[in-house]
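Review form for a predicted model. The reviewer records the input and the model, then writes brief findings.
Reviewer: anonymous (R2)
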Amino acid sequence: MKTRRRANLLFTLLLIGYSLYGLAFIWQSSTVIEGKRYFLLFDDAMISMRYAKNLAAGHGAVWMAGTQPVEGYTNPLWVGYMALFHLLPIDHAVTSVFIQLSGLLILLLNLIFVRRIADELMPESPLVGVLAAFLTATYFPLNIWAWLGLEPGILTLLLSVSVWLLIANLKRGVFSPLPYLILSLSTLIRLDAFVACSVVILVLALTDPAYRRRHLMVGLLSLVGFIALQTLIRLAYYGDVLPNTYYLKVEGYPTLLRIGIGVYHFFNYVIGMNWLVWLLPFSVWLFRRDRIVVLLTALYAGQAAYSAYVGADMWETWGGANRFISVAMPLFFILMAVGLRYLYQAVFTALKGNVRRGRMLLNLASLVLIMLITVNLNSLNGEGVAQALLLKVTPHVDAITKLLRESLFLEKATKPTATLAVVQAGVISYFLDRPMYDTLGKGDRYIAHLPTHEDIGWLPGHMKWDYAYTFGQLKPDVIVQVWKHEEEAAPYLVDYQPFQFGERTMYFRKDSPNVNWDALQ
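Model under review:
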C-alpha cells in the first residue's frame, strides 16, 4: 500500500511537470514579429490547417479555394478537427495554439493509459507504470510530432486506449468490439492506422481461441467497413481511390529499393538510441511470453515493419522514432519498464551478503541506468538533449519561423491576385491568401503521377516536379522556392528578377503587374 501511494504521488508530479514542460515548449515554439505573436505548426500540419481553414469557410476540403479538389493530406478526421477551431472568431495567428494544446492534452491522457497498461502487466509493482509513463513523457520525438500539430499524438492515444481495453478483456476472459471500433476509427485519422488494427486481429485470433471467430469477424468487418467508407467518400469528392500523397510518395519508385532504404533508416534509428537500449524491452521475453507481451511486441514490430515498407519518413536525419514508429513507442517503453523490473528482481535475488546494502546500491544503479537510457533515447541529431531540455530551439521550429517571415514579406511584396509557386506549401499558404501552385505536387494531381527523380536519393514526397509545367506553363508571378536540379529551372528563370530574402532566393516575374516592386527596393 505504501508503494502504491508513492507511485501515485510520483505519477501526479510527472503529470504536473509534463504539463509545464509542454506549455514551455509551445510558448518557445511561438514567435513575435512586429509586435504580434504567432503560433506555428510543422509545415505539413499547416497544409492540413489550410484545408481546414477552407473547409470552415465553406470552400470545401481543398488546398486552394475555387480549384479542383485534390486530397493533399492524409489525415481527414484530424483536418475536420482543425476546422472546428477555424469556426471560432479568433486571429489565425493564434489558431495553431489550440491544436498544440490539444496535442499536449492528448499525450497527458496517453500517459494515464500507459501507466494502466503497465499496471495490468505487473500489478504487484506500481512503480513500473510510473517508469513507463516517465520514459514516454521524456521521449522528445513523440512530443514534437504531437505538439507541432501532426496526428501521431492522437493515433498514439487511441492505440494505447485500445490496448488497455484488449488486455482488460483478455484478463477477464470476455470479448468486446469496442477496441476494434476505436482502431478502425483511427484509419479516418490516418489510413495507415490499418497496420495496428491488422496486427491486433492477427495476434488475438491466434492467442485467444475462445473468441477467435469474433476477433476475425468483428475486427475485419470493422476495419474493412471504415476503409470502404472513406474510400467511397474519396472517390465521390476527389475522384481517387487513394490520397494524392500516396501516388506522390510511393508510385513510380522501385519497391525493393524503397524497402531497403526503410530498413537502413530503421537500423540508424536503433543505433541512434544505442542498440543495447533498444534491446532492453525484449528482455521481458526471458521471463514471460504470454499473449499480452506478444501483443505489445507485435504492435511495435508492425509499426517498424510498415515504416521500412514505405521507405521510412522524410525527416529521418533529425533522429529518433519517425511518425510511423512513434505511435508504438509507448508500448515499447512499457515493455522496457517491465523488462527492467524483471532484471532488477533477478539481480537482487542473485545478491549475496548484506541484503539491505545491496538493495541500496541496486536502487542507485537503477536510477543511474534510467537517466542514461533517457539521455540515449533523446540523443537525436547531435543536439537532441539540449533541444529536449529547451536549451536550444529545434530545427523544426527554426524552419517554420523562417517560412512565416517569408509569408509576411510576400504579403507586402505581392497583390492579392498574384500567383505563387511554392515548395514548402504549409505555413506560406496558410498565412498568405494568394493563389498558389504546389511545385512538389501535394496539391497537384498531375505532379503526383509523374515519374520520380531517383537521382536525388530517397526523399518521400519530394521526388516529383516539372519545372516546364509549374514555371514555364503556369507562369507564376513569384517563384518562392526552387527545389533540386536548379539547372532544369534556369531556362524559365530568365524572365524573373531574383531577390534575396534572408537565406532564400525568390524570383519575381519581370512583367508582372501583381508585384509591388517598391517593396523589393
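Findings: The chain has two domains: 2-388, 395-520.
Further findings: The longest strand covers residues 496-501.
Recommendation: see findings above.
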